[in-house]
Amino acid sequence: MDNVIEVKNLNYQVGQQKILKNINLQVPRDAYITFIGPSGSGKSTLMRIIASMLNATSGEVLFNGKNQSEYEPTHYRHKVSYAFQQPTLFGRTIKENLEFPYLVRRKEFDRSLVTQYLEMVNLNETYIDKSVNDVSGGEKQRIALLRNLIFPPEVLITDEVTTGLDTENKTIVRKLIDQFNKERNVTVLRVTHDDTEISEAHNTITIENGEIKNV
Questions:
Q1: Is the pLDDT of residue 1 over 70?
Q2: Which residues form the ABC transporter domain (predicted)?
């Protein structure tokens, strides 16, 4: 089977506290895996290591068969994208946020394509020119997620991105992620405590006390 991510004998500790213990994991290409388990069990830490935001104490992460460290960091983060629980919009306007993926790739902003993306999450072209202070929390999360997806990554990591959203916004966000997984072949690694998301998940991995309990 073609694995996009492999984690081998991975450990992470801070001082004497062992947060992840001998994690071994294979993530097939195009998979949608939901990580569950108690708060503080190490789920988010593992996701941050896979996203190259933290360095493991020992062990390795392979992306497309190559060690994570062999990739130029910016290139790697274009391919393995991490969506935060608390969406952060920078600058003054929504355009600055949705233009950012183009700027870092030295490409010209495509307003018509961005409008299509906004419509996928029940927003419209007028949002491009809005102030970041004039959108709701749910709208911020949708826009922040689009920022991750305008140039679809190979792997999207979502760390409790629906926490605090109302039912309507949760549904919109889930639908968008599902669509990119099914239609754009984006591999999804999702951390959640949401009962509905867990009950609907087809592929779950439980992490407890820094260890994988099932695969």
A1: no
A2: 5-215
Six-digit token pair at 88? Answer: 């952060």
Q: What are phi and psi of 62, to 5 degrees?
A: -105, 135
| Rounded-to-integer distance, Cα 97 and Cα 82, Å | 15
Question: What are the boundaries of each domain within the chain?
Answer: 3-212
Indicate the DSSP class of residue 30.
T
- Tell me what the pLDDT averaged over the chain comes to: 96
CA-CA distance, 160 to 163, in Å (whole number)?
Answer: 6
Please, are residues 25 and 197 in contact by the beta-carbon 8 Å criterion?
no
Nearest Cα to 169, choosing from 141, 134, 150? 141
What number is the average pLDDT over the span 111-130?
Answer: 97
Residue 215: pLDDT band (50, 70, 90) is low
Give me the residues paired with residue 14 across strands: 17
Its pTM stands at: 0.95
Q: Which architecture does CATH list for 3-212? A: 3-Layer(aba) Sandwich (3.40)
Nearest-angstrom CA–CA distance, 42 and 32: 19
Q: Please state, in angstroms and rounded to a whole number, the distance separating the CA atoms of residues 103 and 98.
A: 10
